[in-house]
Design a protein that fits this description.
By secondary structure, this protein is mainly alpha-helical. It has 9 helices and 5 strands, in the order E-H-H-H-E-E-H-H-E-H-H-E-H-H.
């Protein structure tokens, strides 16, 4: 992707997905049905997807769908494929790895509050995906109009480093150990400035 694509979300759009009773209600219908069916196999699936939905929200577009729906769909397909021929543990691990592998995609987005009459400081104006989920940031800043830019992300970090940095936002400690990742607080990335400008 060589160009910047900009999307505007107005107050009504933001209120719609912020007011959903459960964050998974913001998933497309196909993903909700698949989640209902597959979460009966492993309770961790619903928890991970709920965390993913809280982290991404439907505010990040990806083609004709949202980034959240795209990642959920890919991860559920991975689980469904593995559960047919492998054990439940292997299927759940494949599901978690599919989510983990997709997390760096969030770095292709720049999300910020459209300027209004009041000026907010830079820490509030831009969403820093390394610090908190988008849902939390939107609530904390009482956002009424949001601009989302899909931009090429250039960094010296590889996707594994980015995935490790974002994993604690989605996975609990047990999942991280299960995936072979160090638990939260036991790793740090050197030479990374989390300010995304």
């Amino acid at each position: 992707m060589g160009s910047i694509e900009t999307f505007t979300l107005k107050k009504a759009d933001i209120e719609k997905f912020m007011s959903a009773r459960y964050s998974t209600h913001n998933l497309c219908l196909d993903n909700r049905h698949a989640l209902t069916e597959l979460s009966a196999h492993h309770s961790g699936i619903e928890r991970v997807i709920a965390n993913l939905c809280q982290y991404f929200t439907p505010a990040l577009p990806s083609g004709n769908t949202t980034l959240m729906d795209l990642i959920v769909h890919e991860a559920l397909l991975e689980f469904e494929d593995k559960i047919k021929s492998e054990s439940l543990d292997i299927a759940y691990q494949a599901f978690c790895k599919a989510v983990l592998k997709s997390l760096p995609r969030v770095m292709e987005y720049r999300v910020f509050i459209e300027s209004s009459s009041r000026r907010v400081n830079d820490n509030e104006e831009y969403w820093d995906c390394t610090r908190e989920g988008l849902h939390t940031w939107l609530e904390a800043n009482c956002v009424t109009k949001l601009l989302v830019e899909q931009v090429p992300f250039l960094t010296s970090l590889n996707n594994n480093d980015i995935a490790m940095m974002l994993a604690p936002k989605i996975f609990n400690r047990q999942d991280m150990l299960y995936l072979g990742l160090p638990p939260t607080g036991f790793f740090q990335l050197k030479g990374f400035d989390p300010v995304l400008a």
